[in-house]
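#onboarding

Welcome to the new folks! Below is a worked example of what a typical request in this channel looks like: someone posts a single protein sequence, and someone else replies with the predicted structure as tokens. Don't worry about understanding the tokens yet, we'll cover that in week two.

Example request:
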Amino acid sequence: MTVVLSGEELAIEYRESGERLSVPVHAGQVDWDEPTSEVHRGVNVGAEPYEEVVIFFLDHPGAVPQPVEE
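Example response:
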């Protein structure tokens, strides 16, 4: 789960395809992000700083919250 603290817009860039998605955001926004096999990164393209809090809900003790890039 992601909670946006501040920001206006992110660009999500996918490594393999080069695709770039524009995602408007706002303070207080809460999203549920599903894992994806595509390597990507978020880039702040808004005029104000982007800040978020990420919470991982693990399905079992010892689960890896964020897998290592392959």
